[in-house]
Amino acid sequence: MTDTTTQSDVTDVLPRLPRGGLKRRLTRPALRQEAAASFSSAGFVLPEPANVPLAQLEARNISAWFGDHEVLDRVSLTMPAGAVTALIGPSGCGKSTFLRILNRMHELIPSASLAGEVLLDGDDIYDVSRKLTDARRHIGMVFQKPNPFPAMSIYDNVIAGLTLTGTKTDRDRRDFLVESSLTKAGLWKEVKDRLRAPGGGLSGGQQQRLCIARSLAVQPKVLLMDEPCSALDPTSTRVIEETMLELVQDVTIVIVTHNMQQAQRVSTQCAFFLAGQGQPGGIVEHGDTDAMFSSPIDERTFNYVNGRFG
Ligand SMILES: Nc1ncnc2c1ncn2[C@@H]1O[C@H](COP(=O)(O)OP(=O)(O)OP(=O)(O)O)[C@@H](O)[C@H]1O
Question: Is 247 in the pocket of ligand 1 (CB under 6 A)?
Fold first, then answer.
C-alpha cells in the first residue's frame, strides 16, 4: 500500500447488482486498493460516537465462485450485535472469501461472483437500492498485513478515510476522532506525543493498531478482521486481542483466525468452516465458543479444534 490512493479510487461505485438468489457475475475491477476500499465513506455526515448503535450482521445462503469454481455453498450465519464471531477452519475452505463478501470486497476480484444476502440490521447490503460505499462505511475491514500509508503521519493515517473521501469535518472534530480512535485501538498513549511522525515508523503491532484506528475513525457498525495477528509477535497479539475485547462494546466483530487459542480468548461464538475434497466450503457447526471447544457436536469439529487436522 502506498500513498498514491486517489479520491476517485475510494469513491468509485460498482454497478448495481441484481437482488439475491441469482448468481451474480461481477467483473468490473473498479476498486482494487483494499485498504482504501475498507474505509470508503463518500458524502456522509459522521454521527456522534455515542449515536452509533450496535448492529447485527446476517449472511443468508451465501454461495461464491471464482470463475466456474464454487468455493462456498449456501452458507448462513448470524453474527450478533456486540459479539465477536470467530471463523475457523483449515486453509482454503472459504473463510476469507466469506469475510470479504460481508462488506462487498469479494466483487473487487474480476472473476468473482456470489449468490445470497447479507443483512445489516435487516437491510441487504447487496440490495440494488443500496450504495456500495454505504456497505464499506458501515462494515470496516482490517487485513492480515498492517497496511498504513507509510509516509503519511500517524494523525493523517487515522483520518485518511475522511480525507480521501472528502468528508467535511472541522479541526476540533478531527482532533477528537484521532484521539478517540487511537484510544479505542489501544495506541493513543504510545503515539500521542508524535502524531506528526510517519505511520511507517511504528512497529508491526502498532501499525496494525493504527489500521484499526483508521477503520474506527469512520465509525463503522461492524469490524471484519482477517487474521489480524498472524504477522505479529505474541506481545502485540495480546494487545490486539485486548483491544478487540474493548472494541466489541462499540462494534460487532468478525474475525478469521487459525489460532485456536485466540478464537477461545476473544470470541463469543465460532463457526467451523470445512470444504471436502473438490467441494465448496460450508459451515459444519457454529455456536457458543466454549461449547464448540468443550463439547462440539460434529466429530470433524472435535478433530479440528483439537489439532488433529488442518
Ligand atoms: N482471487 C482468487 N481467485 C481464484 N480463486 C481464489 C481466489 N481467492 C481464493 N480463491 C480460492 O477460493 C478458495 C477459498 O479461499 P479462501 O482464501 O477464502 O480460503 P480460506 O479458508 O480463507 O484459506 P486460508 O485460511 O488459507 O486463508 C480456495 O480454493 C482458493 O484457492
Answer: no
